[in-house]
Amino acid sequence: MEEMEDPMNEGQEQHETITRVTGMYKDWFLDYASYVILERAVPAIEDGFKPVQRRIMHSMKNLDDGRYNKVANIVGHTMQYHPHGDASIADAMVQIGQKDLLIDTQGNWGNILTGDSAAASRYIEARLSKFALDVVFNAKVTDWQASYDGRNKEPIHLPVKFPLLLAQGGEGIAVGLSTKILPHNFLELIDASIKHLQGKKFKIFPDFPTAGIADFSNYNDGLRGGRIRIRARITARDKSTLVISEIPYGTNTSSLIDSILKANDKGKIKIKKIEDNTAADVEILVHLPPNISPDKTIDALYAFTACESSISPLGCVIEDNKPLFIGVSEMLRRSTDHTVELLKKELEIQLGELEDQWHFASLERIFIENRIYRDIEEEETWEGVIQAIDKGLQPHIQNLKRAVTEEDIVRLTEIRIKRISKFDIDKAQQKIDALEAQIAEVKHHLAHLIDYAIAYFERLKKDYGAGKERQTEIRLFDDVDATKVVIRNTKLYVNREEGFIGTSLKRDEYVCDCSDIDDIIVFTREGNMMVTKVDAKTFVGKDIIHVAVFKKKDKRTIYNLIYRDGKKGPSYVKRFNVTSITRDREYPVTYGSAGSTVWYFSANPNGEAEVVTVFLRQVGNIKKLKWDLDFADVIIKGRSAKGNLVTKYSVKKVELKEKGISTLKPRKIWFDETVRRLNVDDRGELLGEFRGEDRLLIINQSGIIKTILPELTTRFDDDMVVLEKWVPKKPISAIYYDGEKDRYYVKRFLVENENKEESFISDHADSRLEIVSTEWKPMVEVVFVKERGKERKDNMEVNLEEFIAIKGIGALGNQLTKDKILQINALEPLPYEAPEEVHADEIEVVEEETVEIELNPEITNKPSKETDSGDDNGTTDDQGQITLF
Questions:
Q1: Other C-beta atoms within 10 Å of 655: how many?
Q2: Does the predicted model carry a pTM greater than 0.70?
Q3: What kind of fold does domain 228-311 have according to CATH?
Q4: Which class would CATH give 340-453?
């Protein structure tokens, strides 16, 4: 729309002129969008190729003579069919070659692991692989169309007899839509195709050439809305070195290392240095500073770097010149059905060719055996020759499968005299019999087409399946809580009186180390609570009584509180936890009345319940001015609960009398073998009920033993053979082979140092752990080697408890036997009633220690003498756990 103004009539009303878009402008954008979708970005479902890929394969077939061709030559040949530049063709060809399925490559084709690009197309060579020649081409069943300039013919679709699109994967961005089909495993696709043909259900999941570990629980069959998570394979070589041996799909070693360095610069993780030793296989060494946990660093790498990535698949293909959104299972079904149709067409064409051969071989035999060729000696015209042969054939063609045509007769006239003179009736009949056998075989295949297709897929698996096993490990991932694995890279400070917290208040009171992604929970003397993000300086409310890093969904941290409701109301006691809140919102932990005051507050990370002494003011004729209050008698409720009444009289002060023990039930912990993690969610094997002091016993196949606290973030080695709740007085029994002495030894020992990782077998390279048991009375069976010329010695059963006494962990042990041992088998242990466990919280306390903390009136600028208002004040101890007022 264009506004036109008449300069001669400035005061008159302005006029509008509307120009409508017509002609080519009207359709140009739609034509462009359609062209990009159909001709460039999205693969066809029939053969799994984009146009440029199909044209490359067609050109390679035209050039194929069994030898390598320069890629530059192939690219130039492809330009006959593809109306774009040579660079785009070369890039597309390199991508096909790197998938190591259709193209046999020679030279530097780049490296998907490191991200290195291929050499220039004039330096590298290629030819079609045997697999491509077998499954991609067949000119007899191919439909053709004219190339873009009309000078050549190109295939509309290639007759691919394999789910190639799923094997190679494909992605592209078009106008208004995109596609991202992930690569799948070659062998699993064949197995799934066979299951589909057998009418069975199947599931397929991606498999990546970069290997790694993947969680496909939300794959959604490759449809829109699905999401998969991929992780690098990271192992701890020792306490100070991590090894990355596999990387996530879509990344390379360079980008992965860059992400690790950025996370280190931001303080999310802490590393010493990185070494990239990647060649044919990935090997990235991450060196850690002293006193940095390898397990925690592995989780931090997943949380803050490209060691874990997520991919959202989107199955979009072209069918009948239209985009179609479809899942990978349906893609496989359609591809398999299409393969069956192609096999059927090939069989039908083969049958027709064999029948034509049989027909002409039979005519040839009749023509020569009955000397019909002599009938044409007297004929002077071509028509006469044709008629003479036709007349001579008539008495002998009753067994033919179709009528004799003039074309058949013409072919008979082309038989050379030399062939007629050397004609062998027996050989001719053998040829006809062989053709009949082949025809019968093809007809059998057509009658049992599904069985034939299954046999075809089984042959592909046998011929080309070597070395194509799954590379990506399928595993369920547990979510990594970033707040639990982030490095505490800054310090948190508090100005209690003014009500500020932050990392820049370095002149004020230090609280703890924290990270820039942590949330901080704050309580004030007026009974308000707030959770806020770590920042340089944040105002949260004056008279802060407690500040700490907030753990979301933490049900074991219990807050004990005694407060006065309002200015002159009664006092209440309550216990509560805080599991979830809205950030930066102020919540009352009292009953919410104006003028409320907190008398006593403590934060207890394991639900401890202390005993306090409540002191009342001497007002009127109150008789009882002092008594003890045990928080263990108070039920844990929600934050908004009012609590239990302590007294309606004025409180003078509350003092801590006795520190408490946990009132929470022992925590049940399970081990999930799938994700190799501990959990409290009923998943996997129950390890037992754990109190605060209980530990886990871990023994590895390498003979390493240690005990650890059962933290849910712990990672476990693949060679772990024992994981159970540690009973300190329960002996460990082991049989091991000593490489230096060439003997088997038995030892029984206790874990003497719970904080130390130790080896209990010799450090010789050939030493190995044979049997380890944590049973009270373990039994083993020893099977001996049969020596030449001697009778085999009977198997020996050994009670390890009687065989050797408990010694130190460093002891060599007793020799098991001098005879040669074939194998050692663990037997059922002897019955034994284990002693009952006794825990610290079950022991009766004989002596009580009273802790009194003097009130500090200067904290709130109040006079130190007692007043009728009852506003006594206090502060926290050094750990910020107990605050008295």
A1: 18
A2: yes
A3: Gyrase A; domain 2 (3.30.1360)
A4: mainly alpha
Amino acid at the residue 362: S
Query: For residue range 127-158, what is the model confidence (pLDDT) as tens digits?
Result: 999 999 999 999 999 999 999 989 999 999 99
Q: Please, which pLDDT band fits residue 306 given cuts at 50, 70 and 90?
A: very high
Supply the DSSP string of 693-728, one letter for each residue.
T--EEEEETTSEEEEE---TT----TTEEEEEE--T
Average pLDDT estimate for 562-588: 92
Report the pLDDT value the prediction gives residue 621, as an integer from 0 to 100: 81
- Secondary structure class of 524 (helix, strand, coil): strand
Dihedral sign, CA of 860, 865, 869, 872? positive
* Predicted pLDDT at 206: 95
- CA–CA dist 411, 801 (Å, integer): 95
Which value, in Å, is the radius of gyration of the alpha carbons in the chain?
A: 42
Residue 869 has a pLDDT of 35
Distance CA 869, CA 857 (A): 14
Q: Classify 508 as helix, strand or coil.
A: coil
Asked if pLDDT for residue 484 goes beyond 80, the answer is no
CA distance 73 to 84: 16
N- to C-terminal Cα distance for the chain?
A: 76
Q: Are 243 and 277 in contact (CB under 8 A)?
A: no
Q: What letter does residue 44 receive in the DSSP assignment?
A: B
3-state helix, strand, coil in the chain (%, to 5): 25, 30, 45
> Which residue's entry shows tokens 């104006």?
594
Domain 48-159 has CATH 1.10.3720.10: no
Q: What is the DSSP letter of 409?
A: H
Strands (E), 369-477: 473-474
Burial class from Cβ neighbours inside 10 Å (0-12, 13-18, 19+) for residue 868 reads: exposed
Burial of 857 (0-12, 13-18, 19+ CB in 10 A): middle
The residue type of 303 is A
pLDDT > 70: percent of the chain = 92
Whole-number Å distance between alpha carbons of 816 and 800: 10
pLDDT at 301: 94
- In the numeric block, which tokens belong to residue 621? 């004729």
SS3 state of residue 132: helix
In the chain, what percentage of residues exceed pLDDT 90? 59
Contact criterion met (CB below 8 Å) for 209 and 264: no
pLDDT digits (tens, 9 = 90+) for 322-349: 889 999 999 999 999 999 999 999 999 9
Task: Answer for the pair 154, 81: CB distance below 8 angstroms, yes or no.
Answer: yes
- Per-residue pLDDT tens for 855-882? 333 333 333 333 333 333 333 333 333 3
Catalytic residue among 35, 123, 510, 832: 123
Locate the DSSP E strands across 765-855: 768-773, 779-784, 796-799, 806-807, 814-815, 821-827
- What is d(CA 560, CA 574) in angstroms, rounded to the nearest whole number? 6
- Nearest Cα neighbor of 685 from 706, 668, 698 is 668
Least confident of 10-14, 61-65, 209-213, 758-762: 10-14
Superfamily name and number for 689-827: DNA gyrase/topoisomerase IV, subunit A, C-terminal (2.120.10.90)
Pairing mode, strands 284-287 and 316-319: unpaired
Question: pLDDT (tens digit, 9 = 90+) per residue, 671-702?
Answer: 988 778 888 877 788 999 887 678 999 999 99
Give the mean pLDDT of 732-753.
Answer: 92
Structure tokens at 534: 């770590």
Reference 352, options 141, 133, 155, 142; nearest CA is 141
At residue 639, the 3 state secondary structure works out as: coil
Q: Any idea where the domains of the chain sit in the sequence?
A: 48-159, 228-311, 340-453, 488-664+853-884, 689-827
Asked about 123 being catalytic, the answer comes back as yes
List pLDDT tens digits, range 41-53. Answer: 899 999 999 999 9
